[in-house]
Design goal:
There is one protein chain. The protein has about 260 residues and is an alpha/beta fold. The chain folds into 2 domains: about 80 residues, Ribosomal Protein L25, Chain P (Beta Barrel), CATH 2.40.240.20; about 170 residues, Alpha/beta knot (3-Layer(aba) Sandwich), CATH 3.40.1280.10. Helix content is about 30%, strand content about 25%.
Length: about 260
C-alpha cells in the first residue's frame, strides 16, 4: 500500500473554533480493525504526530497526520497538496472472465492506468460469471482501491459489467468515442500484426485507445466479425498464448509506452 486512500465521506467537519489552517481537515475516527489502520501502525510504524502519504478517492493527494492512537480507533487529519493527473485515455473491453481472473484484472489494470473497463458478455462467455458476488456485493471496487493505492493514485476507472459486446460497441460508436480512438483487439489466432507494429498500429501520441480482449476461451467468428465491422484491427502479442490477466498487463504496458 504505497498510498492510504480515504473516501470523501470519511472527512469530518472541522471544529468551528479551529481556524488555524482551514486546509487541514479531520477524518472520522478509523477503527483499529480497519486494514488501513493496521497498515499505518504496524507497517508504516507511524506514531502520534507522524505523517504519511494519503489521498481522497477520485480527489486530491496529500499528507495525513496521525494525531492520536486510541484503544479502538486512530484519530487522523488530512491536508490536500495536489490533484492527481488525469487517467490515461485507454478503454478496455474484456470478455467477462472467471471472477478470480476479473479480480486480478481490476487490480492490475488500475495500477497500470486506464480510464474505463467494460466487462462484456460474448459468444463464449459463461453467463453465470455476471452474477458472481464479485459484482453483486460491490467487492469489485475494493480491487480498484488496491490497484490505485499501489500506483500512488487516487483516480479510479469507470467499471461496467452488464453489457454484451454488441451493445457496448454500438453505444460507444453512437457516442462518438470511437471516431477519435485507435481501436485494437487482441486475437492470437487470426491477427496478422503484432501490437506495436506499423508505427504503433496507427496510434498517435495523446490519441485515445480502445483495447478489446476476448474471454478466457477467446473470440469466436461472430465476435471477430463484429469487431472488424466496427473498425477494430486484430493484433497479437507474439506466438505465446498468455493468460487473460497477463495479456491485459502486457498489452497496456505496450500502449502506455507509446506516450
Amino acid at each position: 500500500m504505497n498510498l492510504v486512500l480515504f473516501e470523501p465521506a470519511e472527512l469530518a467537519a472541522p471544529p468551528e473554533a479551529d481556524v488555524r489552517n482551514t486546509n487541514i481537515r479531520p477524518l472520522r475516527p478509523l477503527p483499529r480493525a480497519d486494514a488501513r489502520a493496521r497498515h499505518i501502525v504496524e507497517v508504516l510504524r507511524r506514531r502520534e504526530g507522524d505523517t504519511f502519504d494519503a489521498g481522497l478517492v477520485n480527489g486530491p493527494l496529500g499528507k495525513a497526520t496521525l494525531t492520536a492512537i486510541g484503544a479502538d480507533t486512530l484519530t487522523l487529519a488530512f491536508e490536500p497538496t495536489r490533484e492527481p493527473p488525469p487517467l490515461p485515455p485507454v478503454t478496455l473491453i474484456l470478455g467477462l472472465p472467471r471472477p478470480q481472473t476479473a479480480r486480478d484484472i481490476l487490480r492490475d489494470a488500475t495500477t497500470v492506468g486506464v480510464s474505463c473497463i467494460h466487462f462484456v458478455a460474448t459468444e463464449r462467455t459463461d453467463p453465470n460469471y455476471a452474477t458472481s458476488s464479485l459484482w453483486t456485493s460491490g467487492e469489485w471496487r475494493r480491487h480498484l482501491l488496491t490497484g490505485a493505492a499501489q500506483a500512488f493514485d487516487t483516480r479510479l476507472p469507470e467499471i461496467t459489467w452488464t453489457h454484451d459486446l454488441a451493445s457496448i460497441l454500438t453505444e460507444s460508436n453512437h457516442n462518438g468515442y470511437f471516431s477519435s480512438a485507435r481501436l485494437l483487439a487482441l486475437d492470437p489466432y487470426e491477427a496478422t500484426e503484432s501490437l506495436g507494429q506499423s508505427n504503433h498500429n496507427g496510434y498517435f501520441v495523446g490519441q485515445p485507445a480502445v483495447l478489446a480482449l476476448g474471454p478466457e476461451r477467446g473470440w469466436d467468428n461472430t465476435d471477430r466479425d463484429l469487431l472488424r465491422s466496427t473498425g477494430f484491427t486484430l493484433v497479437h502479442l507474439g506466438q505465446r498464448i498468455l493468460r487473460s490477466e497477463t495479456a491485459v498487463v502486457a498489452a497496456l504496458a505496450r500502449i502506455r509506452n507509446w506516450n
